[in-house]
Amino acid sequence: MYSYIARQPIVDLDSSIVAYELLFRESLVNTFPQMDPDKATSRLLIEHFFLTNVKDIDRQIFLVNFPYQSLIEQMPTLFPSELLMIEVLEDCPPNDELFDAIQSLHSKGYRIVLDDFVPSDKWQRFLPFITLIKFDIRQFSIAEAQVFMHQNKAFKLKYLAEKIEDDSEFQACIQAGFHYFQGYHFHRPEIIRKRRIESASFMIEELKQAVQQDIIDCDYVAHLIENDITMTYKLMHFMTAHHPSTFVSVQQSLQLLGNENIKLFISLSIIAEHDSVPSPYYQSSMQRAQCCFQLAKLSPLEIDADQAYFIGMFSQLDKLFEQPLADLIQSLPLTSAAKLALTQQQGILGDILKLALALENNQADNIVNLSATLSLETHQALQVFAQANDWSTPEFRYLDIDTSVSGLKQ
After folding, report:
1. Domains annotated on the chain, with CATH
2. Which of 387, 40, 397 is nearest to 225 (CA)?
3. Containing H/E element for 88?
4. Contact 341, 311 (CB under 8 A)
5. HDOD domain location, by residue (predicted)?
6. DSSP readout, 214-267?
7. With CB atoms 3.0 to 4.6 Å apart as the test, which of 37, 162, 213, 353 could cross-link to 182 if both were Cys?
């Protein structure tokens, strides 16, 4: 299955691209699908920010539409303020609840955009907290926009004219005082297609129940997340944006996030899930993760078992996403040793991965030699592989026992 995002550039007075508006799509057809706006926004955010290293793409700014409820729940705070501009949709009621939400987001460093703006007295109190106002020149004339700009010179506002279709409209908007521009005259939306990976449906149901509690059981939520490739991958990208350091464990990351951010992160991830079957590489990757983890724990050598788990889990990301593995893991907060093991199968972690692969492919000589390298008996490696194979089945993995990276009882 694939995800689709339309990306339309925003340009300045020199027609240079300064930002992009991200638009959700369900196919290569460049129209907004019939879908609940909250679900559409959630999927766009997850698939662009949690499954992509946006900081390494082009360091541009992204404008994203947020429906009313997501603003009230402070959903934008899950994403880096330096990359994101929050578009307030035209159908949002300018009430006290929204005003408080906008004030809060502004105080946290987020830039607020009023999309398809139609002036009214009810919006006036919002203006001190607004960075950019977008006028659709098909719905609100350039002359009317110019009057509004003149009347509100006291505010440090920037203005964007959208749906510009020819040079005469562009020049008229420049003369009126607009700062930024968007429309087919400059660039049509570009559809970006990416492979997406799904979480197991039973894990999603467990997470739904877990986040409904007033106080979240971080140990149990960590257990669920680290047993799911998709959620672990999303969490790593999220932590890279907010706490850029080496990813030690799922449990530690949840402790850093705190109760409310955990609820927001998981709620957004759950809303964005699709009703489809995980890739066949999903289960084999989980089996490999458990195999690598157990081999690392069993070996008398000093091996980071958590990192061994992650290299097993992510060793088939290239097949899951249909992108080069080196590109996919470049932005992940793994140790350099783990990245070297994944890309070149070097180092002690590389030996762990090679042994797991040898076990999967029943390569007898390699199993014997690599087991010896790790100071293991061959029968120990074979037993670990058999146990990992059992563990990777849903019926076993989600039993109420501690099989997590943070503390196996096996």
Report:
1. 2-194 (3.20.20.450), 198-410 (1.10.3210.10)
2. 397
3. strand 84-88
4. yes
5. 197-380
6. SS--HHHHHHHHHT-HHHHHHHHHHHHHHS-S----HHHHHHHH-HHHHHHHHH
7. 162
Two tokens, residue 36: 């609940």
* CB-count burial class (<10 Å; 0-12, 13-18, 19+) for 30: middle
Instruction: Write the single-letter amino acid at 31.
Output: T
- Comparing CA positions, the residue from 383, 360, 266, 257 lying closest to residue 312 is 360
